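Regression check, flavin-adenine dinucleotide case 433:
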Amino acid sequence: MTNEIKEYDVLGIGLGPANLSIAIALEEQAQKSQLSYCFLEQKPHFEWHGGMLLDGTRMQISCLKDLVTLRNPMSPYTFVNYLHAHNRLNAFINLGSQHPSRLEFNDYLTWVAQHFSDLVHYEQKVIDIQPIEDDNGEVAKVRVTATNQYGEKTVRVAKNLILGMGGAAKLPEQFKGLEHANVLHSSGYKMWRDTHLRTLPSDAKLAVVGAGQSAAEIFVDLCNQFEQGEVHMINRRFALHPADDSHFVNEIFNPEFTDHIYSCKESERQSILNHFSGTNYSVVDTEELHAIYERLYLQRVTGKGQHKYLRCHDIQETVNKDNKVSIRLNDRINNQQNWQDYDAVILATGYRYDGFNQMLSKIQPFMAVSPVERSYRIPMTKQCHVNVFLQGCCESSHGLSDTLLSVLAVRSKEIVDALLDRKSAKPKEALSA
Ligand SMILES: Cc1cc2nc3c(=O)[nH]c(=O)nc-3n(C[C@H](O)[C@H](O)[C@H](O)COP(=O)(O)OP(=O)(O)OC[C@H]3O[C@@H](n4cnc5c(N)ncnc54)[C@H](O)[C@@H]3O)c2cc1C
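Current build output:
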């Protein structure tokens, strides 16, 4: 069954922090323009990385880099106002940290999302975007199809799109096609833990693949759950590396740095991205690193515990064996190959941010062959008047802050400004209905 619904000036795809920040910017900046807009979110309700909302995990960014403060500190949607509204401002100040728990930041984001609930359609997974061509081959609108959990489709027409779909789980080649209830990506960890963990024996043998913050958090969590068990953290590299959040380095996440990196030559930009990748990729917070090292050290003191950090280990192949997952590992330090049988394997192997290509494949013929604009808009051919803005997939042109929270508040202003500029510059291809 397919429902045809109404037409919007702007459709936001996904409702994570990026489009939530856009919702605020539209309310605060575009009131007079009377744009009609809504957001489509595949989940049944707002949740920020629910699979990793583990006790004790903290934000890796100052809470002042919330959805709006850097654009409009007087907005009612700041983190500080959230604390004030919940009568916790003094207590939060007393905590003495700008890095709240992820649990609290998720609560803040959910509180903001509730303010916009009239504009959000949950359980709407966008599966198709089609250009609507008129008789002259001009495209002023697109048809967006979304589906709910029962497979019922709803079609909405939009004149502009703002994508904020986040990343999709990245799986190592060796695990593709391996069907096993206890092999999962970190993004589904908490749900799996709440349902499957108790089915495992207390001396279970488990593996965490990866070397970043999620891998570290899951390793610690599993070690806590399975004191009698054996948890292996498998890493290709020699060491776990600390995340560089030192003062000068952190300035690459300032909104003005986006201007700098965007204007660099390709080779220079690439070198900046490589040079600073240790702020975000395959790195672990120093506190977590220390906790892991100390835990493994204590095992040596007490002679109790079998948790291990497997360094310089490459995963060669995987097979399903007697309800276990068998992994062939190449230990490059000892130059040995060996098979390890695990009750469960958690792949904390990161995300890919190229889902927009597939999502926009049908309007691809109308895209101009030039880079994404500074305003995050995809340049279009002359026949296409639909504006498509990308969030979270412009790291290669706009820098490392693109997939993070750092520039959300300012980026949403830049996108909404560009949308409104185009509206006043081109009344005919209008945003208004
Ligand atoms: C565990 C974890 C912790 C993190 N902590 C930090 C941190 O402390 N600081 C920081 O700066 N960054 C952090 N990040 C990075 C993270 O990407 C950002 O915090 C933020 O979530 C990015 O927001 P987003 O809206 O772009 O993407 P997301 O938060 O991923 O939101 C995208 C939304 O789009 C929806 N969606 C996707 N496809 C569709 C579709 N086809 N149809 C409808 N809806 C769709 C998804 O369901 C999701 O709700 C963390 C990431 C993870 C995984």
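Comparison notes: The two ends are 27 Å apart (CA to CA). The longest strand covers residues 2-13. No diff flagged against the previous build.
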